[in-house]
Request: fold
Amino acid sequence: MTDGLKHAYDLTFDCVQCGYCLPACPTYETMESETHSPRGRINLVKMVAEGKASVEDMEEPIEKCLGCMACTSVCPTNVQYGSILENAKEVLDESKQTGAVESFLFDDFIPSRRWMDRLGVATWLFQKSGADRIADRLPWKMPLHLEAFAGILPEMPSPAKRNERATRYMRKRPAVKKVGFFTGCIMDSVFFGSNESTIELLLRSGAEVVLPENQTCCGALHAHSGKKEKAIELAKQNIAAYEEEQFDYIVENAGGCGAQMIDYPSLFEEGTEWHERAVAFSSRVKDISEVLVEMDGLAFSKEVDQTVTYQPSCHMTYVQKVVEPPLELLRKVPGLQLEELERPGFCCGSAGVYNLVQHEDSMDVLDVKMEDVCRTGADQVVTSNPGCLLQMKLGIKREGMESEAVHLVDLLMEADPESRY
Amino acid sequence: MNKWLKPLEDCLEKGRVLTEVADLYSYSFDASFGEHLPEAVVQVKDKYEVARILKLANEYGVPVYPRGAGTCLSGGPLPVHGGIVLDLSKLPARIEVRPDDLTVTVSPSVRTGDINKEAEKYGLMYAPDPSSAHVATIGGNLAENSGGPRGLKYGVTKDHVLGLEVVTPEGELIRTGGQTIKNVTGYDLTKLIVGSEGTLAVIVEATLKLMPKPPAVRTMMVAFNEVRTAGEAISRTLTSGVLPSKLEFMDQACVVAVEQFQPIGLPVDAAAIILVELDGPEEALRVEQEKIEAIMKDMKAKDIIIPESDEEAAKLWHARKQVSPAIAKIKPTKVSEDATVPRSKIPDFMDRLQVIKEKYNLEVVAFGHAGDGNLHPNILCDQRDADEMKRAELAVEEMFEAAIELGGTLSGEHGIGTMKAPFMEMELGDVGVDMMRRIKQVWDPNNILNPGKIFAEKGQKLVLRND
Reply:
């Protein structure tokens, strides 16, 4: 028995190997083998735990899993695939020498507000200098296929603009709700403008918006890469940061972060103080779309004469289980034509850092998605998570389409929402 | 290294022969019991590759196991003697509906549910509806002669096959049957191959029969205080001149499990519940429904529930679908059987199950397609408890004995495979099994195709434990 896999091993017995997960799994479809299916992976974890296969044998199949969790929505026996996958990743992480780049990325870079701001500023410089337009023609290769993303990043705010942002936004009239806004690291560095839209939409909906200063990365990328300890550390920091004030909601605009934060209680042992605090935190975490629907404080005043399609975040769909609110908001925008995807639940291939570390496989998944997107004839592809947003931008560029990818909140701002309060 | 591996790789596209440990383990199981490592997995892209592989296999004496989506509940695709797993699920998908002929020609890799979806575009339907139809391939359904709830009214897979193209065990391509409803030319090899569980041929194309899609459906749920009354009500319904499209049964243990799993308000105090679906023209359904309602009242049914909307009806069928996951919460390992008895014998079979359950001290629940006598007794146990698994093995054997004594059969729709092979003689007698063996020997002289299935080896016993 491989000791580290004890937790996952017990969970594998819930799998009856019926195969109902196969049609839901993007990598089963693109990589065309049981080895890259949920049931195949679960079986491999079991075989490794029993000592029949080695940790190396499961490395490739586990690392090629997108972690989109589509399989969990069709599983008739509710196998805890997410837990099995994370446990397997922990074992893989322990067995590997972590490279300097990777440990810098996970330990210092992503969780750090300072580094994330620097990323935003660096991108701004990169764009101002014009280097982004020639990145894919540079004679040298950038690490992690970053050249592919260089030309698709949104226009960055200047450092001065970044510094201008407040940490508390009050309304002139009394607030209906008090919201703690979770800015997220990628959202805040790369999609700063979308965060501004989010704050604005909340204000117009009748909320007071606070950005707690001690908030940090949600830890999703760490948890999904088997770095549980770091994930716990980040969770604790966030829980404490949002205890400083009494919030009605803790609002995020990134499906991946939301999914991680509603799952904080699972990081702590039941009955402990931290578990209790995590439950209190998670029960208030909501996606921006949910809160906008619930508060119902916006009246869209401008027609948006466009056809759009909506690419939901997998973690928002399968973990947070938020499906209808974004569609409901889109249907309220006057003039907007919504053409839904045939398979919205099929991952776009972004999947955290998957499109960086498993680039080719990610592009195969993206190709399937783009076929569906093209069929809708949409002018804009609306998403609700920064990873998906970047990936859709990349997909549009690869297909040579005229369309654009936007975050839901930015599209809603286009319709000039007026406050009903 | 196997001496056949190099020539095998030579006759296929690169990357289509899988031999990594991870791959071998991933094709070592299906949805039944047992774990058997193949030596290679090949993923074919056309029928000529299938023919080449079988020729090669005969030359080197390597066993070949055809496989679809691996949803089999009887061990059909398990590579029990090593050798080559032949993955047919990656053949290009092809569904050609011929609405004027009411037929459809398909490649074996197509999912069964997709055939029906395609047929519906023309107002037609492909009737067989195994509950795995959205996952399983038609190739697997043909090999196993799969059933499903609608089998009651429309029959099972074999009743819908007009013709096949197959590769023989020695690697020759042949066609059987054709495209017509009537066809008596020669022996009916089509029917011989359908349900032969991959032991006689590899199916590479099939022409299937379509029928008009019924314009409307109606559902009703009836609860009973006694299992026996439920059984009698089923018999009365079936002899009343009305033939429902589905007639499903759930015992109390299943109802309780569903309510604990996902409460939807089923009567947990009922001894048994039956779910009836009628299909046909709206006008006819009204009359039929009244008739069945009258029968149920006469049989002193505890409750008769007629859903007022399609959504409510869907909720009841959803409850039926929840039985499998719900009972898995009782204990993790599910030994799902499909012994089938003449319809009038369902109450007797239920009594026998009760006795077996008590004798071996096991959790046994029963649900299934009561309208055609095809019940699914399920033993809920834990694979990690060797003693319990041993008791489960003995209980399964007694279930088979009971079914056969009542004039029934070992398997209604899951197939014999590895698990039921030891019991074949019990039902067919030694001469009966020997006649089948002789057919196998003539078709497959080198015993290449799917060895270890249907026919038991000397001293073979049912084993539910993985060592």
Observations:
- Chain A touches chain B at residues 13-14, 16-20, 22-23, 32-35, 37, 40, 43-44, 47, 52-54, 57-58, 60-61, 76-78 (CB under 8 Å).
- Chain A has 24 helices and eleven strands.
